[in-house]
Amino acid sequence: MDLFSQQSVSADTMLLLAGPPRLTAEGFIDLLSPIGLVQNVQFNVDNQLMPHWEIGTDHTYFTRGKTVNTMEIGAMVANKPSLMKLMSRQSPQGTEAFPTDQSGQFWMNLDSETLSKPFGMLMIFKTKGSNSKGENGSFVGGTYLENCNIGSFSWGVESQSVSLHENVSIMFDRAIPVDYSEE
Amino acid sequence: MADRINQNGEKLFTVRPRNSSAVTQTRGNVSSIRFILPKNTDKSKWSETVDVKYKTAFEQAVSSDGFINFIAKNVSYDIQEKSQTIHTFGGQEAVYFYGKAPVQVNFSGLLVDDLDNDQFTKFLNLYMNYLRGTKASQDYCYIELVLSNAIFTGAFTGIQIQQESSRDTDITFNAQFLAKTFTLASTDTFFTENGRLNQTVPLFREPDPTIKQEDITNAINQNANAGLSLGEYTRSFGTLPTVTDLIGFSASDITDFFGYINDFLNNVTKPVQDLANRIDDFANDAIGLLEAVERGTGTIINNVESASRSVYGAIDSMDDAVTTICNFPESMSNKLGSIGSKGGAPAPAIAGSDSIASDDAMLSLSTARLAGSARGTPDGDAAVIAVTSSRNTENTTLSPTLSSSSSSTPTLSSSTVTSSEDEVSILRIGG
């Protein structure tokens, strides 16, 4: 337990990146964009588990429906590409340039053409300490979220807070486990 | 090769869908629609005749993969027997079965109407020109509706489209498909070498609907020596069974059975029969009694009716003779008085006489005014009274008159006057 702080996954040892909508091997790494100033992340998967009962017995049987995958990300707004600008960067064409249908760094128009295209999200979970010398934390897990689509966008500010916050809610097709190593 | 998960003796230990990654890398089979051309058709020649607007969709439909530009969301189908229930006396019924009705499939889903996919127009173009029943049958083709667990063979009989303003790209459709036959695909196929739906070993399949005349002729010839094959109606696989085979015993067995039963039944039924006979006698006696009551009642009713007719007749015949009226017995006048809406006082009886003084006649008439009438004459009108002249005159016109000093006394009007004693003059008295 003394080493718990070194062995636990915490907010400052997580990495979030936006990327192309499908996990591909060709030039994939170059298309990833890290998402910074994230203050909160919520991840939810619901497989619509349904219990069934039969007349005459007390057995409970279970069947699963199709999985519903959702995620929410909240970040601070600063002079950097906002959440929606980062997530729209990786168009299916794989261009490195940011789309130009919205101006500035803080994008708010969810109805734009660019944001009708899906994207992907890579999540890496590490620890602060590591089991091996020289290692920058231990890899705990990673997953790539394919075919992400933004369902809603919001932002808010309070007089007492020091910054403006934006939030996006996302639904995605599936989560693919990935392995991670540093070179 | 993947295996089925051992269910450990339980009924539903695990439930894995057909699109499980353990058995397929394609995340499942999408639904498709195939347009099946007649046998030995040159598909390329067919394709040349297709309008370029829907050539791509057509070529997809005639390919082995089928047309997939739609999203199937709901399928329901009804498998019915054709039957007729005949109700019989005694509480039992006879049911006749004569085959399976065509399977009606209700098929609904989503057509995406957008710039990049254009599913809506592609699907409807294909439907209007090839998939609907009239068009398919004109070309001697049929349609296969391919789902992940079943294939329906037939043709589309109708389609409904719904579009809503809040979601421009989502167009829902609801189609009806008449399936002459269907094939079910077992999940056994996922644990065999070739797991594709096209090569499944079906659990159930009905005869191919495109059977030709020579196929039928060949089937009959093959079965000629073995007997008549009647298909699903007899399941005889080429021969008709004998009656003994079907029901397990012969006609002579039945005769013996009933002969044995008959003696037994006689012993059982005789007491019941005796009781029934006694009940029968009782019923006849009861009927006789009832009939007697009915006759007696009828007599009573008849008497009442005759009495009432007599009363009415009495009113009618009050014009016979004044002396009769004058000698009206009090009891009868009481009866008259009780008939009608407002009974009146009885007319005073006047002793029988062949003449009356005018004052007496006036008194009689005035009181008769209040006698009322069962025939609904208005209040104040007496029944018709006839007065016979007591004076025998010949060819003399008489005009009997009565005077009255009060407006409340009845007035008298004369209608006809006769000259002979035998005729009567009718006076109507009103108030």
Largest sheet of chain A: 8 strands, antiparallel
**Outline of chain A:** globular
Judged by helices, strands and strand pairing, the structural class of chain B is alpha+beta
**What are the secondary-structure elements of chain A, in order, as H or E?**
HEEEEEEHEEEE
Uncertain spans of chain A: none
Largest interface: A-B, 7 and 5 residues
Number-wise, the strands of chain A total 10
Order of helices and strands of chain B: EHHEEEEHHEEEHHHHHHEEE
Q: Total helix count of chain A?
A: 2
Low-pLDDT runs of chain B? 195-203, 227-240, 318-333, 335-356, 368-431
Morphology of chain B? elongated
Overview of this structure, please?
With 183 residues, chain A is mainly beta. Chain A has helices spanning 4-7, 83-87, and strands spanning 9-19, 33-34, 38-46, 50-53, 60-63, 68-76, 119-127, 139-156, 165-172, 174-177. In chain A, strands 1, 2, 3, 6, 7, 8, 9 and 10 form an eight-stranded antiparallel beta sheet that branches. A two-stranded antiparallel sheet of chain A has the order 4-5. In chain A, strand 8 (139-156) and strand 9 (165-172) form a beta hairpin. The longest helix of chain A has 5 residues, at 83-87. In chain A, 20% of the residues are buried. Chain B has 431 residues and is α+β, with helices and mostly antiparallel strands. In chain B, strand 7 and strand 8 form a beta hairpin.
Quick synopsis:
The complex is a heterodimer of chains A (183) and B (431). Chain A has 183 residues and is mainly beta.
Features:
heterodimer; A: 183 residues; mainly beta; eight-stranded antiparallel β-sheet; two-stranded antiparallel ribbon; 2 helices; globular; B: 431 residues; alpha+beta; six-stranded antiparallel β-sheet; three-stranded antiparallel β-sheet; 32% helix
List the helices and strands and how they pair.
The complex is a heterodimer of chains A (183) and B (431).
Chain A: H1 4-7, E1 9-19, E2 33-34, E3 38-46, E4 50-53, E5 60-63, E6 68-76, H2 83-87, E7 119-127, E8 139-156, E9 165-172, E10 174-177
Antiparallel strand pairs in A: 1-2, 1-7, 3-6, 4-5, 6-9, 7-8, 8-9, 8-10
Chain B: E1 32-36, H1 43-48, H2 55-62, E2 71-78, E3 81-87, E4 93-100, E5 103-112, H3 119-131, H4 133-138, E6 142-146, E7 150-164, E8 167-184, H5 213-223, H6 243-247, H7 251-316, H8 322-326, H9 330-338, H10 358-368, E9 385-387, E10 411-414, E11 425-430
Antiparallel strand pairs in B: 1-6, 2-5, 3-4, 5-8, 6-7, 7-8, 9-11, 10-11
